[in-house]
Amino acid sequence: MADGALFEVRDLCVQFATPRGRVNAVREASLEVRRGECLAVVGESGSGKSQLFLGCLGLLAAGGVVQGSARFDGQELLGPDSTPRRAALGTRVAMVFQDPMNALTPHLTIGRQLAEVVLDRGLLDAAAARARSLAVLESVGMPEPEARLRQYPHELSGGQRQRAAIAMALMTHPDLLVADEPTTALDVTVQAQVIEVLRGARDRGLAVVLITHDMGVVAGIADRVAVMYAGRIVETALARELFDSPAHPYTAALLASVPRLDTPLAGRLVGIEGQPPAPGAEPDGCAFAPRCASVLDVCHRSRPSLESREARSVACHAARLEAGAGR
Amino acid sequence: MTETLLRVRNLTVRFPMPRTRLLGPRPWLTAVNGVDLEIEAGRAVGLVGESGCGKSTLARAILALVAPQAGTIEWRGRPVRHDDATGLRRMRRELQVVFQDPVGSLDPRMSVGESVTEALEALEGAQAAAASRARVGSMLAEVGLDPALHARYPHELSGGQCQRAAIARALVGRPKLLVCDEAVSALDVSVQAQIVNLLADLRRRHGLALLFISHNLAVVRHLCDEVAVLYHGRVVERAPAAAIFAAPRHPYTRALLAAVPDPDPAAHRRGVAPELGAASEAVADDGCAYRLRCPLADEACRTRAPRLEGTGDGHLTACHHGRARPAAD
Lengths: 327, 329
Description:
Chain A is α/β, with parallel strands linked by helices. Chain A is built from 13 helices and twelve strands. Chain B has two domains: 4-246, P-loop containing nucleotide triphosphate hydrolases (Rossmann fold); 250-329, no CATH class.
């Protein structure tokens, strides 16, 4: 299964020490990403989707502790020796965040910031760095790249800033790009352009992890999808299969609650009643059981484990019964 | 005949910008440029457009939070004047607002019950409010906040719960029009659906009119009777919701609709971006503001700004090519 995986996470847990005790942000999460593939990690706020990757890359906030394994190109990033992680981060593994203004330094030109990425690592000389900056800006579809090199972040529009932030991430020709809600702060028109940029990078062989809560964005680019709820991965599947036939009731509810332009107006949107469990809560059974439409007695007592069949894994008692009955 | 609650005529709001040269003229930013808008009792009007198009400034002018440079606003037939404190008070009882950030729009030092009570006291005076204390509880119950949560503080509640409290606070004085400025944009999609349903219920139950400002066209489609599309401070298209989603006439409206990501990989259209092009941020100063992004732009668009004109069916478009629809892609 994990053959050819560029990035492989096994049984990852992320905990935070808070005044009210330890809070589990991510529990026993496993996933892998291959070259030239886009994996979307979806879930609502607080589901742990960002903490999972911040944990793997050693970027947790103070008080955060990570356990488990994260292997990048065969090397363990979470071992006692931090050298492999530091060597990979920012060079072979790059990140893009939601707010491009925070990713860019306000008092340096775009050209300087792009060049710095490779100059500081001693990867290229000044002339080559400038040439690469231009090439990378072009590859992300930046209008008039030459002129942009001389501009400051505040002179760019929101969409151009996010392109510049993505360009910065691509300067070292990384193998893996982790994009955390890269389109959330952008207008739909600009969002469509940024998705196009990420799709281009993926098509050139980059492995892309897209962390998002927007199912529309997922449908536009993802090859595979991992759905998270209350810190756990509850379903992984090929994107097309996930949208065609979601197996976990949470995935189904999430898809149903997206307002769409092309469906008949039935009147009401389908929300998910209730709230996700509080961060510190440790329910015995399935965390989604109190909100679930297909809930069984067993769901309140025992937590379903993630079970795989072919390209899909699901953690749900009801889905397993249904799959069993279908055979 | 339904009452027209709000009538906006030729509204223009400009903001002074810093001088670019020491003794040069002061430049002005025109955020809202000659907008006309009516909202009838009980109707839901959607206001859509990209960030910076003037949606929020228009809302703030309607709420009398910024003073317009030109144009008039009438509330139930009376002109809204910024020097008329009594008139503004009366209007604010009937015209309320819910903002985007649900936690930030509530006082962190008040429980949500206190916040709603405070709103009632401000509108009706402390004594009258004491008599109608029961209304606070029933309002909070109506927006779906469990009585156990009424004594909680905003930081103890989720974003969706805070937004319910903010809606209760806005509605406790029984307004006729609720302005929602991106009121569901910061919420998770499952919670967003709950709040959209809540707004639809409250509308039906109380005959509440809505001015629903959003960049999410799919949500607007679910909630609104009528849609106005704003581009660079001007209304470029206004029509009944069914008409605008079935057959958008302005090229900008079509581009906005095409850019909405379709949550279905099979149907996903590749390359919606070309129509928006590289110059997507450029705005023309003369002629049609949209012409630098527009695939249909020609000489007429450069020389003359199009006026918002209708075809008699309530569908208004400000475009020289508004009726010449290109083949659907």
